[in-house]
Amino acid sequence: MEPKTKSRSDSEWHWWLLVTAIAILVAGAAFVTIWKNFHELVPNKVPPIRRPPDGVTQKYSDALRVSTRFFDVQKSGKLVNNQIEWRGDSGLEDGKDENIDLSKGLYDAGDHMKFGFPMAFTATVLAWSILEYGQHMEEVKELKHAQESLKWITDYLINAHPSDNVLYIQVGDPDTDHKCWERPETSTEKRPTIQINTSYPGSDVAAETAAAMAAASLVFKNQDASYSKSLLDHAQKLFDFANSYPGVYSKSIPVIQDYYNSSGFVDELLWAASWLYHATRDRYYIDYVTVMHGNAFASWGNPTWFSWDDKLAGTQVLLSRVNFFGMDTEMSIVENMNLQMYRRTAEALMCTVLLPPPTNKKTNGGLIWVNEWDSLQYAIASAFLSLVFSDYMFTSNTPYLYCNGKLYEPMDIRAFAISQADYVLGNNPMNMSYLVGYGLNYPRYVHHRGASIPVDANTSCHNGFKWLNSTKPNPNLAIGAVVGGPFLNDTYIDSRNNSMQAEPTTYNSAFFVGLVSGLVTSSSVVRSFT
Ligand SMILES: *[C@@H]1O[C@H](CO)[C@@H](O)[C@H](O)[C@H]1NC(C)=O
Ligand SMILES: *[C@@H]1O[C@H](CO)[C@@H](O)[C@H](O)[C@H]1NC(C)=O
Ligand SMILES: *[C@@H]1O[C@H](CO)[C@@H](O)[C@H](O)[C@H]1NC(C)=O
Ligand SMILES: *[C@@H]1O[C@H](CO)[C@@H](O)[C@H](O)[C@H]1NC(C)=O
Ligand SMILES: *[C@@H]1O[C@H](CO)[C@@H](O)[C@H](O)[C@H]1NC(C)=O
Ligand SMILES: *[C@@H]1O[C@H](CO)[C@@H](O)[C@H](O)[C@H]1NC(C)=O
Ligand SMILES: *[C@@H]1O[C@H](CO)[C@@H](O)[C@H](O)[C@H]1NC(C)=O
Fold first, then answer.
1. Which residue owns the Cα nearest ligand 4 atom 2?
2. Which domain of life is it from (predicted)?
3. Domain-wise residue ranges, the chain
4. Using one digit for the tens of pLDDT, what is the confidence trace for 235-256?
5. How far apart are CA 270 and CA 278, in angstroms?
6. Residue range 58-520 in CATH 1.50.10.10
């Protein structure tokens, strides 16, 4: 019988071999293509993080050189190496009634008040800027200047704290001061002081001063160890005072309320403890902000706007630093979880500025909008925090931040910071630079007594008002002033008596110095902090 299968001939075998070989080649090629595509679609490792270009950006280094000058414009006391030709010595008798020397420090704004609460905050923000971006400042030779400006405030703060539970928090009487329009150099009005003490406590101002001194102790650690140590001692004592005698300073001393009315002190306690942790690496301060008071004080999950009154957002970003880069001490699970909560809240703040409205409110020109008074403060403060946070992400190789299902890279966060800085520098519907002395089109009628009166004018308290009334631009340049800023409709009225928009503050300049020093060059490594 015929077999159903028969052995193949040699030529048949060759044919089958050929077909099989072709099939294997085709399948292999297909596999390689699929494999390649697969790897392009689903990376098995994170692609390199987009980073800002290297090199110094002229625009921001120019802006930095201008903005640090405002601290010179605002100096009280016997000036040293003064570079502002229309400024001279002033406030030399400040504190004399109390047998202390409160001659140094900075005038707050367009007047000649020394308000301790915002002055200390200016120092804290300036110190933070130096700690994060000191190397950037050094690249454009501004580091020494920034450090000297900081020291002019901390010298004052040291003298303002003559014993453990006493802190002088104000020099000058705002009612008297505001009834005059004169140069600080020629002023003869009485300048009374106000202190807080155990009967009239002020945890907010004491803790803010502690934060400033703790941060500054880090700035001066390497160059002047004994000064740094002295700052740290004061900071720890002031923190204990703030913590042991709880109270809102503007409730203890109600006359304060018309100016820097404080909405509470728990934010300053956390902020000061966070700085003290960085300055001492003492576990106690981590315990303070986590297990002891985190739940009650920190408002986790509810980001707020960083300002002279509210330090929570700054605290969240500053404590994210610990979460990003680790710490020296061992931590408990609860401490770890609480530090996570700070970082999550900082991330929520980033999402608030990054996501489209209505998560935040912006002017048509793109400026973050929170409040009509000193409108720029909130924009530049949140831009500074965003920049710092994005640099923490770059340095720790953290590629993404998730916001409501959207994915943001650190470059996106940096772009937000740039958008706010550029708005201030003139990229806005008015084409106006809100940094005085930068660009060609900046405010000429800044609300500032010293800048508005010619050096050789013989003015006294009342007749000086003719310089407020004058329709001519200021004779002196308040260089580095960051004015209050525009309306919600992006317009600005350049008028000397428009204090809502045209008055600068020292903390605006501190935020802006931090912001532009971060942008001077790229930050791949946060090295300078400690
Ligand atoms: C405590 O501070 C209040 C408010 O500044 C002040 O009136 C009072 O004299 C101070 N107490 C002492 C003992 O100096
Ligand atoms: C100061 O702030 C407190 C608490 O926020 C508030 O009750 C008070 O009315 C404020 N005072 C003024 C003058 O605005
Ligand atoms: C600002 O500059 C742009 C472009 O140069 C110009 O179109 C616009 O009219 C300017 N706006 C004002 C208010 O000057
Ligand atoms: C300044 O004005 C006062 C009176 O207002 C006068 O006594 C004084 O001599 C004047 N000083 C100068 C330098 O003109
Ligand atoms: C300045 O203007 C105000 C309001 O118009 C007026 O009351 C005051 O007399 C003027 N002062 C001087 C010194 O010109
Ligand atoms: C912009 O807003 C301010 C304050 O609300 C208002 O006074 C001004 O008239 C507005 N300007 C324009 C051009 O709409
Ligand atoms: C300046 O503004 C204040 C407050 O709005 C007002 O009381 C004062 O009369 C104004 N002064 C002048 C000279 O316009």
1. 458
2. Eukaryota
3. 58-520
4. 999 999 999 999 999 999 999 9
5. 12
6. yes
